[in-house]
Design a protein that fits this description.
single chain; Quinone Oxidoreductase, Chain A, domain 1; about 325 residues; 11 helices; about 30% helix; seven-stranded mixed beta sheet; six-stranded parallel beta sheet; alpha/beta; 2 domains
Length: about 325
């Protein structure tokens, strides 16, 4: 099969290879999927680069956790009726050497989720990390009906889904962006209010929008950078759900301000979420796909042969939306 892989960590152009590898063998409880699209997330590029001393866990790695395709074979214990089913894939390379940057991938059957007919493979490849992370961040503390949610970075892959899921859940959504183009993306996703944090005072604008009440929950992409503002605009007994803090991965926590507002902080990493959190995300994402509620933001598509350029695009931080490899 055609595949992309690396055998050492480093820059994308230096370590990523494309060529032929043996097809993966099928085990008990597993399915083999012919991959049509492979989603690339920051965690994939960080693992490849060795960011923050992440170790190389296998001698040869086919990258990427997310993807979409068609089940071609099933292992022992998996109903044969699943053969031919269109699916989206999550956590394909978690604890395993071979992910979705290949013509075929083998993974546990529960990680290949039925893809509704109205959703194409490229969109399906965007769901695993971004949409499931967004779901957990929005709903970690239960329903959001009638609440006001602040989504930091509403034009990002996670933020874009978080806006849509929060609106679907009945919340009012305020979001922050860094440009006019990103503001258009956030408005299109359904945000009620969009604040350009480059040119506006975020805390003052939120106080104005909420008539001094503040927000109930925050979905946070830049925990260290935004914590002071988050505490200032969050109501008492509110919650922050954060999935990234790239500017500082050892932020200092202002204990008293967090304590006196009784603020809850959730650290959300999709790969270690509980099984129930995964199942809840899958159920709601499926409902939203079936009803046409979720719209997908694809920045660029690359062929498998250009996987290194695709990784560089993700790392650049300039692309608005998901980056996807088209495999078959």
């Amino acid at each position: 099969m055609k595949a992309a892989w690396y055998e050492k960590q480093g820059e994308a152009q230096e370590v990523l290879q494309v060529g032929d590898l043996p097809e993966p063998s099928l085990g008990k409880g597993e399915v083999r999927v012919r991959v049509h699209a492979s989603g690339i997330n920051p965690s994939d590029t960080k693992n490849r680069s060795g960011w923050a001393d992440l170790p190389l866990r296998f001698p040869q790695v086919i990258p990427h956790q997310d993807g979409a395709g068609v089940i071609e074979a099933v292992g022992e214990g998996v109903p044969s009726a699943h053969v031919g089913e269109r699916v989206w894939i999550y956590e394909a390379q978690l604890g395993r050497p071979f992910g979705t940057a290949a013509e075929f991938v083998v993974l546990p059957s529960e990680q290949a989720v039925r893809l509704p007919d109205g959703t194409n493979f490229v969109a399906g490849a965007c769901l695993g990390v971004p949409a499931m992370t967004a779901h957990r961040c929005v709903f970690a503390d239960g329903p959001v009906t009638g609440q006001t949610i602040l989504v930091s970075g509403g034009a990002g892959a996670v933020g874009h889904y978080a806006i849509q899921l929060a609106k679907w859940g009945g919340a009012t959504v305020i979001t922050t962006v860094s440009s006019g183009q990103k503001a258009e993306v956030a408005h299109a996703a359904g945000a009620d209010q969009v604040i350009n944090y480059k040119s506006e005072d975020v805390a003052a604008r939120i106080k104005e929008i909420t008539k001094g009440e503040g927000v109930d929950r925050i979905v946070e992409v830049a925990f260290a950078s935004n914590l002071a503002v988050d505490i200032a605009v969050l109501q008492g007994n509110g919650a922050i759900a954060t999935y990234s803090s790239d500017s500082d991965n050892q932020p200092q926590l202002p204990f008293l301000p967090l304590l006196t507002k009784n603020i809850t902080v959730h650290f959300v990493l999709v790969y270690v979420m509980s099984k129930s959190a995964h199942q809840a995300a899958i159920a709601d994402i499926t409902t939203c796909l079936e009803t046409g509620t979720l719209h997908h933001l694809v920045a660029q598509r690359f062929p498998l042969a250009e996987v290194a350029a695709a990784h560089q695009g993700v790392e650049s931080g300039h692309m608005i939306g998901n980056v996807v490899l088209e495999i078959n």
